[in-house]
C-alpha cells in the first residue's frame, strides 16, 4: 500500500500543477474577454450619456445600455427618483436625504462592479503562491524515494544517484513554471482592476456633480414611465 501510494505522489503532483497551469491560462482568456467587453460597453454608454440633451434622456440611456457605468448611472437615477414627500408608511432607506442616498447608491454599485471584476483573481493569487511549494513537495518526496531505493540497492554510484534525484527535481521546475505566469497574470489584472475602479470613481464623481448642479431636478414620473416602456419592449 505504501509503495503504491509513493508511486502516485510525484505523478499526482505533476498532474495537479498541469491543472493549475490550465486554470491560469483559462482565467487569462476569460478575464481578458470580460475587460474588453466592459471597455467597449462603457465607451458606448459614456458617448451616449454625455451627448444626451437632458437628464431624462440620460436616464433612458442608463436603463438601455449594458455595462458597469450604465449600471452605476442607473443606480444613481434610482436614488434621484425616490419620492421625498412625507408618507405615513415610508421605508427607512427613503428617509435619507437625496444627496446622501445618491452617494450611497453610487458607492454600493461600484463595490458590486469591483467584486465582479475581482472574480478569479483569488485563484490566480493562490496558484502563484502555492505552486512552487507543491512542486517542492513532489521533489522532496521523490528524493526520499530515491534515497530509499539507493539504500536498498547498496549502490551509491553517480549514475544511481543522479538519475532518480534529477527526475525528482522536475516537480520543482514545473511548480516554478506554473507559478510565474500565474503571478504575472494576477498582477496584470490587478492593474486593470485599479484602472477600471478609477474610471468608475471618476464617472460617479461626475454624475454626483451633475445631479447636484441640476438640484436633482428630474421628472420622476417621466423616468418611471420610460423605464416601464423599455422593460415591456424588451
Question: Could you walk me through the main structural features you see in this protein, from its secondary elements to its overall organization?
Answer:
It is a single chain. By secondary structure, the chain is mainly alpha-helical. It has one domain (2-233). The protein is 84% helix and 0% strand. It contains seven helices and no strands. It has helices at 2-50, 55-64, 68-80, 98-118, 121-153, 158-213, 220-233. Helix 1 runs antiparallel to helix 2 (55-64). The longest helix is centred in the C-terminal third of the chain and has 56 residues, at 158-213. It is rod-shaped. 26% of the residues are buried. The model has no long low-confidence stretch (mean pLDDT 81).
Helix share, percent: over 70%
Query: Can you give the mean pLDDT?
Result: 81
Low-confidence stretches: none
Distance between the termini: 63 Å
| Beta-strand fraction estimate | under 5%
How are the secondary structure elements laid out?
Elements: H1 2-50, H2 55-64, H3 68-80, H4 98-118, H5 121-153, H6 158-213, H7 220-233
List keywords for this structure.
single chain; 234 residues; mainly alpha; 7 helices; 0% strand
Quick take:
With 234 residues, the protein is mostly helical.
Amino acid at each position: 500500500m505504501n509503495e503504491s501510494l509513493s508511486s502516485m505522489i510525484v505523478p499526482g503532483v505533476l498532474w495537479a500543477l498541469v491543472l493549475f497551469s490550465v486554470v491560469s491560462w483559462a482565467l487569462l482568456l476569460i478575464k481578458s474577454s470580460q475587460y474588453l467587453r466592459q471597455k467597449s460597453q462603457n465607451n458606448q454608454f459614456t458617448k451616449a450619456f454625455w451627448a444626451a440633451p437632458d437628464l431624462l434622456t440620460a436616464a433612458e440611456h442608463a436603463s438601455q445600455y449594458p455595462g458597469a457605468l450604465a449600471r452605476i448611472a442607473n443606480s444613481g437615477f434610482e436614488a434621484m427618483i425616490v419620492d421625498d414627500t412625507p408618507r405615513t408608511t415610508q421605508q427607512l432607506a427613503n428617509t435619507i436625504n437625496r444627496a446622501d442616498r445618491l452617494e450611497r447608491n453610487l458607492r454600493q454599485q461600484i463595490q458590486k462592479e469591483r467584486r465582479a471584476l475581482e472574480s478569479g483573481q483569488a485563484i490566480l493569487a493562490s496558484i502563484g503562491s502555492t505552486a512552487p511549494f507543491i512542486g517542492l513537495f513532489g521533489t522532496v518526496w521523490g528524493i526520499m524515494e530515491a534515497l530509499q531505493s539507493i539504500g536498498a540497492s547498496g549502490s551509491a554510484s553517480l549514475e544511481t544517484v543522479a538519475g532518480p534525484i534529477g527526475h525528482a527535481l522536475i516537480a520543482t521546475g514545473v511548480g516554478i513554471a506554473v507559478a510565474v505566469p500565474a503571478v504575472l497574470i494576477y498582477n496584470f489584472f490587478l492593474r486593470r482592476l485599479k484602472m477600471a475602479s478609477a474610471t468608475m470613481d471618476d464617472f460617479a464623481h461626475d454624475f454626483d456633480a451633475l445631479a447636484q448642479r441640476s438640484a436633482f431636478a428630474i421628472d420622476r414620473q417621466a423616468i418611471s414611465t420610460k423605464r416601464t416602456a423599455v422593460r415591456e419592449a424588451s
